[in-house]
Amino acid sequence: MTADFVYRYPPLYSGTLVRRYKRFLADVELVNGEIVTAHCPNTGPMTGVCDPASPVMLSYSDNAKRKYPFTWETIQMRDDRRTWVGINTALPNRVMKTVLENHQIPELGNYESVRSEVRYGTDQKSRIDFLLSGGDAEKPIYVEIKNTTWAKDSLALFPDTVTERGQKHLRELTALVDAEDARCVMLYFINRGDCDRFSPGDDADPQYGQLLRQAVEMGVEVLPCRFDVTPDGLRYLGLATLEL
Question: How far apart are CA 132 and CA 142, in angstroms?
Fold first, then answer.
């Protein structure tokens, strides 16, 4: 059944992860035994989701200008659940644009317009991932997207390393909700289907956790959105339980 996919992958190539290195690169052994170097579109530590010998899926580009035509898209965990996890950090915003345009998150209400990369703030130097407005929305809705793949059992966590950029976004949203008549939303894209709870990654960045809790107290909304990842595509599963 494919009707409920919010995103479908192009045809993917199966392989096994040999190693990930230099942040941007991964060596993968394809099913035919060939070892290829793939682009790794995730520059973070990828805690728990880059273990060698794990099954992975790659996409392929025929763009002659690309040095590495393969892109690492997903990895399968080697535990009992065998969960597939999304690796490509460029994908969540593309998926969310479709989800938002199709009004698939009822908690956001009945807006009309979806705009991407909109400048905001007093100096207009920052950009929000999505700005929703119009329709029955009484206030503009500012939505910032954060991708997360780190998990402890069924608990999704963000971030998995110190993120000054993420801290900055929380401060900006907190200031915005305090200064303007607007809704501000931190939307966490849980890029794996085995987590039904979400918490800030205090062990990795305690300052981020503190800022997130302060932001919620000031009125910033948190939507931890669950996605089931398969080699065919992604399905939206609804919200995880927020545990602050």
Answer: 7
Indicate yes or no: pTM above 0.90. Answer: yes
Q: Are 149 and 172 in contact (CB under 8 A)?
A: no
- Residue among 84, 81, 59 nearest 69 (CA): 59
- Strands 126-133, 150-152: pairing is unpaired
pLDDT values of the chain reduced to their tens digit, one per residue, 244 residues: 344 899 999 999 999 999 999 999 999 999 999 999 999 999 899 999 999 999 999 999 999 999 999 999 999 999 888 999 999 999 999 999 999 999 999 999 999 999 999 998 766 678 999 999 998 878 899 999 999 999 999 999 999 999 999 999 999 999 998 777 889 999 999 999 999 999 999 999 999 999 999 999 999 999 999 999 999 999 999 999 999 9
Q: Which H helix or E strand runs over 30?
A: strand 25-30
Please name the amino acid found at residue 29: E
Q: What residues does 199 pair with on adjacent strands? A: 157
Distance separating alpha carbons of residues 101 and 123, to the nearest angstrom: 28
